[in-house]
Amino acid sequence: MTAVRRPSPANQFSFSKVKAFQQCPLRYRYRYVEGRTEAFRSIESFVGTVAHEVLEWAYRERDGGRTPEPAAAAERFSALWDELWDGTVAIVRVDGTASDHLRRGREMVERFVREVLPRDASETLGLERRFTVRLDGGVVFTGIADRVGRTAKGTPFVVDYKTSASGGSYDEPENGLQARLYAACLLREEADRPVARAGFHYLVSGRTRWETVRRIDGDGIWSRFLALVREASGADEYPPRPGVLCAWCGFNAICPAARVPDELSGGLELARRPGPAG
Question: pTM (2 decimals)?
Fold first, then answer.
């Protein structure tokens, strides 16, 4: 049985919330309308959580005048891994192992601290920065950006760190809109700046994808977000949208349409077990 949590306020929308509706309306209903808690979280998501904690530590060390060492970042990753691991983490790919993911995670943060951080001369304005913006129709946008900063030339920016192997594309709503929303929030605060930069840094490849967001782009960005909000909040039906992501959905054990192949059944098996994770 899936646990029930308190639903989020009906007028409060994050990027993750509208993205959930676009990916699968039924998952959206389970999570945001009925307030259920997913039965598991994927190990890929867990790696991302731990990596973000390490990068936040690394920037706090640097901004405090200290020099974080790559080996220390890797060891911190291992320590946080042990501290945060619990019975809800699922290895979706049945041929994968926790040790493989741990090794890759250590390598990602070690490489970042060794190769990326020393070249980054930007000023940190905030880490895990929460944005809240009231929009038309009583809608409240809320979101948390991994890092907000300012370049040496004074341009404000926001960057999110991704642990996925894919480099993504700004043409995909799940990539471009999130960064643009955060940049639009930042421009509301930076009244004297005509542009902000929005980016994703991919820890696997070590590359960062940047986009310039102009102040005049703001209306279009918010209009696009509000259109997605209206689609989700105005829905009368929530049909399932089965596909490859079913294997990573924490509701797949209760979804009538879930398609989970045997080789990706690690999460489903965990969800079906009795106890807190199921």
Answer: 0.91
Contact at 8 Å (CB) between 245 and 24? yes
Evaluate whether residue 1 is within a structural domain. Answer: no
pLDDT digits (tens, 9 = 90+) for 207-226: 999 999 999 999 999 999 99
Domain range holding 64? 40-120+240-278
Query: How far is Cα of residue 233 from the mean position of the Cα atoms in its chain?
Result: 22
Q: Is residue 225 located within the same domain as residue 245? A: no
Question: Same structural domain for residues 138 and 200?
Answer: yes
Which of 91, 111, 110, 109 shows the shortest CA–CA distance to 101? 91
The residues, any chain, with a CB within 8 Å of residue 90's CB and separated by 6 or more, are 40, 41, 42, 43, 266, 267, 269, 270, 271
Where would I find the H helices in 69-172? 70-84, 98-111
Taking CA 175 as the corner, what is the angle to CA 93 and CA 146, rounded to the nearest 5 degrees? Answer: 90
* DSSP assignment string, 12-59: EE-HHHHHHHHH-HHHHIIIIIS-BPPS-EEHHHHHHHHHHHHHHHHH
**CATH code, 191:** 3.90.320.10
Q: Same structural domain for residues 196 and 277? A: no
The token pair that represents 143 in the structure block: 């979101």
Residue 19 lies in a domain: no
d(CA 170, CA 180): 10
> pLDDT per residue over 186-202, tens digit each?
999 998 999 999 999 99
Place of tokens 């929005």: 198
Closest CA to 121 of 148, 146, 151: 151
* Whole-angstrom distance, CA of residue 55 vs CA of residue 51: 6
